[in-house]
Every structure is written in structure tokens, then in C-alpha cells.
Amino acid sequence: MTKVTAQLSVSADGFYAGPLFDGDGDWMDSAESAGFFRVTRWVTEASAWRERQGFAGGEQDTNSEVIAETFEAAGAYVMGRRMADGGEVPWGDEPPFRAPVFVVTHRPRERLLRQGGTSFTFVTDGVASAVEQARAVAGGKNVAVAGGGSLVRQVIKAGLLDELELHVVPVVLGTGLRLFNADLDLAEKEAIELTPTRVIHTPQVTHIRYAVNGRAPLVLDDRGSGGGPTVTR
């Protein structure tokens, strides 16, 4: 059955990149870039990722197996405009996705066909439409929300995400772009409940997969009285 999934590498304090690049100068020299490349170092060192990019070498280890599994599970992708804009030139004529990609954007653009099975369809009527279109062509495989973090939050906020995998890197960035913030529009006594379904530890990163259970009220526990949780209003 097709699931909508997302994965993101984050620091131990929850950042997936450094502070937002303001557009002045080269992004590669920015603090945003520095944080991003630190938390994704485990990816670029893996042979499965390097093979998809057309590079040689890399580590054939557990981290590489996790990446290979993720590529294999995806039948279609949903992506934010900023990620698509930044990747279009570096990905070249044969991007690593090898599947249809649906880009959430406000700017209409003709569909792009690339080698290796990748296509880019630009969706201007919202994230729910992009997910629906991706489901229709995923062939029973997963719809992978490729990012960035803002798009992942939109999918979670809309209640469309079935599975979230966080790759937690043992580094503290202190500041930057945080995956979870007020964009989720949670009420004061509301949470999004997750159930861990898999944990894989390596020295470079810990992979934690969660089933996303959706929004739920925050409740007080019984504080040891034996009476069970109490729903608060």
C-alpha cells in the first residue's frame, strides 16, 4: 500500500541546516550550507548515494543500506520549489530520483523530462494536490516527501504524512533551520503523536522511523494516583 513518507537529517538539537541564507553571496559559503552539509555528511559518504549521483567510491555500510532502501521504496516524490531550484543544475540531465517528481510552487512551468525516468511536474494548487498526483503514479510504492523542512511541515500540518524518518546526527548546531516549529499551528494543549517503529544506530547517525498517528489532545497523567490520564479542556 502506498504510504506518504518523509525523511530528514537533523542535529541533536533539531536543526536540518544552519541559519537561513539571505541571498547575499554564494549559498555554498553560507552558514545555512555549513549546517546542512554537517548533518548530511553521513549521506555523501555512503556508496548508495554516490552511485545515484554518478560518483565512485563511498562506504558500503549500514548507512548506505538505509539510503538504498529509501530509494527503492519511492515510486514518486514531492518536493519544495527551493530544493528544486537549487538542485536543477547540479542534478544534471539524469537526476538521482528515477521517478516522477512533483514540485510545489506558485510559479507555473512546463513539465521537465530528464533521463533515467525522472520528470518534474510543477504543481501550483497546493501540497495536497501534489501528494494526490504523486500517489496516482507511484505504482504502489511510497510517495517520498523530499523536502525541504518547510514542505515536510506543510505535509504534516495537512495530516498527509504516514511515516517520518529522522536521521539524528550527534552534533549540536545551536541555531538554524528547525524541522519542527510554530508552522504546525498546534493548539496550546495539542500534540502530534508518533510511534517509533524502527531504530538503527551507527557511529555517524541514528536512524529513527516513526509512524505518524496525527493530532491528539495533551492529557495529564494520573501523577501516581492510579486513576489513569485525565483529558484537559
Which sequence of strands runs across the widest sheet?
Answer: 5-6-4-3-7-1-8-11-10
Q: Report Rg.
A: 19 Å
Order of helices and strands: EEHHHHEHEEEHEHEEEEEE
Number of alpha- plus pi-helical segments: 7
Average pLDDT: 94
Major beta sheet summary: 9 strands, mixed
Distance between the termini: 37 Å
Strand fraction band? 25-35%
Question: SS-based structural class?
Answer: alpha/beta
How many runs of DSSP E, i.e. beta strands?
Answer: 13
Query: pLDDT under 50 segments (min length 5)?
Result: none
| Residue share in helix | 25-40%
Q: State the shape.
A: globular
Folded structure, characterized:
The structure is a single chain. The protein is α/β, with parallel strands linked by helices and 233 residues long. Helix content is 27%, strand content 31%. The strands form 3 sheets. It has a 9-stranded mixed beta sheet with strand order 5-6-4-3-7-1-8-11-10. Strands 2-9 form a two-stranded antiparallel sheet. A two-stranded antiparallel ribbon has the order 12-13. It is globular.
Note the main attributes of this structure:
alpha/beta, nine-stranded mixed sheet, globular
